[in-house]
Amino acid sequence: MVINRPGIASMSLGRPWIHDLPGKLMQAAAHGFEGIELFFDDLDCYAQRTFNGDHLEASVHVRRLCERLGMTIICLQPFSMYEGLLDRAESDKLVTEKLPRWFTLARALGTDMIQVPSNFLGPDPKTGAPRTTGDLSVIVADLQRIADLGAKEGFRFVYEALCWGDHVDTWEASWDVVRGVDRPNFGLCLDSFNIAGRVYADPSSPTGRTPNAAADLAASLERLRNAKIDPAKIFYVQLVDGERLDAPLDEKHPFHVDGQPVRMSWSRNARLFPFEESRGGYLPIVDVARTFFDDLGFRGWVSLELFSRTLANPDPFTPADHARRGIDSYHKMGRLLNWEGQTEKVPAALKEPSSPVQHRL
Predict the structure, then answer these.
(1) DSSP classification of residue 7
(2) Measured between alpha carbons, how far is 355 from 315 in angstroms, rounded to an integer?
(3) For residue 34, what are the contacts with CB-CB under 8 A and spacing of at least 6?
(4) What does the DSSP 8-state code read for residue 95?
(5) What is the rounded distance in angstroms from the CA atom of residue 2 to the CA atom of residue 340?
(6) Which among 267, 41, 77, 59 is positioned nearest to 158, based on CA atoms?
(7) Can you give the pLDDT at residue 343?
């Protein structure tokens, strides 16, 4: 029987260059996480600090550590700013130079999956000219290209719509892309934050919501229920909430970044784990989760991918704190939705007070 398994993104446990990757992996395992979405920034930081910039050697060590901890590397991510580029020379460069290196690293890490977020390159900051196209045929052809190369090497790709993406910013648009690519090794990542963050939330509004938030989200989820998505095409899901801000995220807000989409600025600073209403969580994450698990019938990796200003806290207990919050959220969701085969156990490492772990291997 396929059951849900808890995963977490490496960046969701602390910032690179502040909190070391081995320490974060150890805290994830100690708190009961079984899988890790490995961010390249974490791998790069570990390589620069410990292996003189050798990403391959760092990957080998990360794989060994995860094997010792009993954790699976779900994917390497993000292979970003790729599909739909108007600069076709840059598109070719990413495929011929960057992608082969990622295949090498992913193989060394022991994962067969690479995550591709929807392109959010935005316009040229100097001229304002667009740098990506919304032409679905171009986007699909670009992604078919890497899917076909990946198939020859034994790799899968998982595509995720970001709610601030240039052209693909809803689950519907990402599903159109996945259907268009039509390759067995190219699937979908559904993210509660990006779904609700696009149609329900508006951090630039005083209410934090779009004008018809509840109705629009309900309609979106109804379309998702009726889309007849094969659960096998959903490679994993992410469950995350967002913080209701005290003031609209405009040019006066401390999270504002010139030229950056408002939802991206909000995402980078104010994600929360589900059931953290005491911290300001307000998105209807349970409604989204019920659609994923009860209606679509998804079972598999459930990743807690959180970005937050709290990750920059230099306190050495920051990774442990986020790991604890994440696994608590995961088990609350499992109890609420009655996930079959779901067990909640306290790892031996947590039967005594946990201590921060900062190691160099």
Answers:
(1) E
(2) 12
(3) 5, 6, 7, 70, 71, 72
(4) I
(5) 9
(6) 77
(7) 57
Structure tokens at 67: 């094997």
User: What tokens does 87 get?
Assistant: 């600069």
Tokens 């200003």 -> residue: 309
The token duo for 72 is 């699976």
pLDDT digits (tens, 9 = 90+) for 153-162: 999 999 999 9
Q: In which band, very low, low, confident or very high, does the pLDDT at 355 lie, cut at 50, 70 and 90? A: very low
pLDDT for residue 2: 72
Q: How far apart are the first and last CA of the chain?
A: 37
Q: How does strand 271-272 pair with strand 186-191?
A: unpaired
pTM summary value? 0.93
d(CA 176, CA 162): 14
The residues, any chain, with a CB within 8 Å of residue 153's CB and separated by 6 or more, are 103, 107
Taking the C-alpha atoms of residue 85 and residue 90, their distance in angstroms, rounded to an integer, is 8
pLDDT of 36-67, one tens digit each?
999 999 999 999 999 999 999 999 999 999 99
> What pLDDT score does 359 carry?
39
Give the chain's domains with CATH numbers.
9-338 (3.20.20.150)
User: Which residues does 294 contact at the CB level (< 8 Å), separation at least 6?
Assistant: 337
pLDDT of residue 300: 97
CA dist 177 and 187 (Å) reads: 10
